[in-house]
């Protein structure tokens, strides 16, 4: 059997109201994390896992996204003329690293609806959904593990992470059973953003999914759920309960994840990533200690 060829879908149609007024004119996915927009980290993660066909679901006033992944001949010529090969390579990397497509979501009807907009592009093949709020450290394997698990089982695969009970209400939460693999659980149900006392586990769904194309059939008849939106969680719940289907499995991730969907966590992400960089860390880490001593 030949290896599967996956496409990646990145929903990026949200309004980013948590970051107003910055996101009044700049999409939240374009907010810089050190010196790259958040969405570039996500595309690079897909490419690192061997995926080079990427569909970004956008909304109104998101032209900055397509501009970022397009070539800029004037800028490139200027850098070439100056002999600045390092900056030229960085500029060209964002437009050369993958085959990137865009489609509008239209009405903002939720994550499930955004994923459904990818149906024509994805076709009858399994695909990956990657949320731009979650950045996964390039040194820690997650997506490759999920792809391998899908190829082994044919199931829908979600990324899970243990979170504190005080934060559980911010996530979709898995009802899970252990398997022979300590890194993988069988998901028998999902609850969208439960209260702490109602949460079935501490395993939160984070923003990575590997989905079979049959999920589109379920999404087409999924009714609006929490928040009046079409929830991907609801579709996966139905998928998990199908006795004749391959089911849903979760890969429990224990690596480094940076949440850029919240202002405080966004600042922490920048600090953590900058501190680990060879060009910034050696000067930044001592400064942190000096600054912390003044608090």
UniProtKB/TrEMBL annotation:
Span of domain Nucleotidyl transferase: 7-273
Entry's Gene Ontology molecular function annotations: UTP:glucose-1-phosphate uridylyltransferase activity
UniProt keyword Nucleotidyltransferase present: yes
GO annotation, biological process: UDP-alpha-D-glucose metabolic process
InterPro entries in UniProt: GalU_uridylyltTrfase_bac/arc, NTP_transferase_dom, Nucleotide-diphossugar_trans
Residue ranges crossing the lipid bilayer per the database entry: none
Keywords: Nucleotidyltransferase, Transferase
Record flagged with keyword Transit peptide: no
Pfam family, one: NTP_transferase
EC identifiers of the protein: 2.7.7.9
Catalyzed reactions: alpha-D-glucose 1-phosphate + UTP + H(+) = UDP-alpha-D-glucose + diphosphate
Family: Belongs to the UDPGP type 2 family.
Name this protein carries in UniProt: UTP--glucose-1-phosphate uridylyltransferase
Species whose genome carries this gene: Microbacterium rhizomatis
């Amino acid at each position: 059997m030949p290896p599967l060829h996956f496409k990646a879908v990145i929903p990026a149609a949200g309004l980013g109201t948590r970051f107003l007024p910055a996101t009044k004119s700049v999409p939240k996915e374009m907010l810089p994390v050190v010196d790259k927009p958040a969405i570039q980290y996500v595309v690079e993660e897909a490419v690192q896992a061997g995926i080079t066909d990427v569909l970004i679901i956008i909304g109104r006033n998101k032209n900055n996204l397509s501009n970022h992944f397009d070539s800029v001949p004037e800028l490139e010529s200027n850098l070439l003329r100056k002999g600045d090969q390092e900056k030229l390579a960085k500029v060209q990397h964002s437009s050369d690293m993958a085959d990137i497509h865009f489609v509008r979501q239209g009405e903002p009807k939720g994550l499930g609806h955004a994923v459904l907009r990818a149906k024509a592009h994805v076709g009858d093949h399994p695909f990956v959904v990657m949320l731009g709020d979650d950045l996964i450290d390039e040194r820690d394997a997650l997506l490759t593990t999920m792809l391998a698990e899908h190829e082994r089982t044919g199931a829908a695969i979600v990324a899970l992470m243990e979170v504190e009970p005080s934060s559980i209400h911010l996530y979709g939460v898995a009802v899970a059973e252990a398997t022979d693999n300590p890194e993988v659980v069988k998901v028998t149900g999902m609850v969208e953003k439960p209260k702490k006392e109602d949460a079935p586990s501490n395993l939160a769904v984070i923003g990575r999914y590997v989905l079979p194309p049959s999920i589109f059939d379920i999404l087409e008849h999924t009714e609006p759920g929490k928040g009046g939106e079409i929830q991907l969680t609801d579709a996966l719940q139905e998928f998990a309960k199908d006795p004749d289907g391959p089911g849903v499995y979760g890969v429990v991730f224990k690596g480094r994840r940076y949440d850029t969907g919240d202002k405080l966590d966004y600042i922490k992400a920048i600090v953590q990533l900058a501190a680990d960089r060879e060009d910034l860390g050696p000067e930044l880490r001592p400064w942190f200690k000096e600054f912390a001593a003044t608090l």
